[in-house]
Amino acid sequence: MQHYHYIFTGSGLSALMTVYEMILSKNFDDKTILLIDENPKKVNDRTWCFWDEKDTFENIVSKKWDVALFADKNFKRNLEINPYQYKMIRGLDFYNLVFETISNHKNIHFINQKVIDFEELGNHCVVKTESHSYTCNKIFNSIYNPNLVKNQDKYPLLQQHFIGWFIKSKEEVFDKNKATFMDFSVEQKGNTRFMYVLPTSSTEALLEYTLFSADLLSKEEYEEEIQKYIKELGITNYEILEKEQGNIPMTCFPFWEKNSKNIIHIGSAGGWTKASTGYTFKNTIKKSKLLVAFLTQHTDFRKFHKTDKFWFYDLLFIDVLYRNNELGSKVFSSLFKKGKPALIFKFLDEETSLWEDLQVIWKCPKLPFIKVLITRIFK
Ligand SMILES: Cc1cc2nc3c(=O)[nH]c(=O)nc-3n(C[C@H](O)[C@H](O)[C@H](O)COP(=O)(O)OP(=O)(O)OC[C@H]3O[C@@H](n4cnc5c(N)ncnc54)[C@H](O)[C@@H]3O)c2cc1C
User: Fold this and answer.
1) In whole angstroms, what is the distance from residue 348 CA to residue 181 CA?
2) What is the per-residue pLDDT for 1?
3) Phi and psi at residue 12, in whole multiples of 5°?
4) Is 16 in the pocket of ligand 1 (CB under 6 A)?
5) Which residues of the chain are under the pLDDT cut of 50?
6) For the segment 174-184, what is each residue's pLDDT rounded down to a tens digit?
7) How far apart are CA 211 and CA 247, in angstroms?
8) Distance 337 CA to ligand 1 centre (A)
9) CA of 37 to the centre of ligand 1 (A)
10) pTM attached to this predicted model
């Protein structure tokens, strides 16, 4: 059986980012690394957006916006997000960048196989795919196991689910300098529903009909809403260039408690998705850097995770939206109507002081949060 120092089960964002950080650190050149994925990662299967004040992956950023629109039924606000910019990276550009870098490192291999099992056996681990078995010292797993969250009720699960159409219209209706961050003016139907629009030119944009809720819709429902929105924008003629869909777990379930000495769960499978927003890209950059630094000094993965105040804020937020899903529009509108956009983004990046937290939190409707706080204390 072929043995490696490290095996990555699943080779999407979090695995590739971690390997990329390993390469940059130069501390792992003597380690054999195997990346396994059932998908060859050769198509653009997703688009990542994030707010950023640095030059993160600048060479593969495909579009940037300085202004983001927030709207609901009653108001519209152009958010001046300085010092941040809202940025877009195509999944395929990121995969190509990392695989090209990997190709110069003979110690790192990728295989296109489906993982069917992995486990820790004392001092080493075994990974089984449909056709082979491999042993290793440590496993980095990013294959998400939905049953972990389903089989418990302490930490509710919402999903950020959406279908997106990248369209080209005949009419020049889009402002290419402004992304629509959240447009809650769409009918809420008892949920948290909004439109997300990322224009790349005056005639081209990715439009995503998005919900933060417990249950998925039928494909037709998302697509009818996208068509309705396109019509309301005044577009009469358009073609669909690309489609994407997603279903991102929003939960405070402590995935890290499943880590063992030699197996760590990373990415969404490891709780790296920000529960209250579904954003994962930036968290993955931060966590992969921390993980790579951790590996140079520690050997026990159970010591990697640290729970902080932001986990608790997210816990309450998810409790509120799980109980009263129709409140989403009100909560986000209360934040963005008068709040400082840069401070809100800093808060969502989990980089604010307690004083700054209070400035953001204070804007939210109080009663629903107090109710869930009391329930959590006495549960
Ligand atoms: C369409 C879409 C758009 C998104 N947009 C954003 C965004 O704008 N901003 C943001 O911050 N986040 C976004 N996200 C959320 C998050 O960033 C992504 O889901 C991200 O890819 C998560 O990284 P990951 O490593 O956890 O999982 P993935 O990138 O999904 O990697 C997991 C890998 O495991 C592989 N795999 C699964 N099962 C097996 C198996 N049995 N054997 C072998 N391989 C397996 C998969 O093929 C996949 O490559 C988006 C998600 C989706 C789906």
Assistant:
1) 14
2) 86
3) -100, -145
4) no
5) none
6) 999 999 999 99
7) 10
8) 32
9) 11
10) 0.95
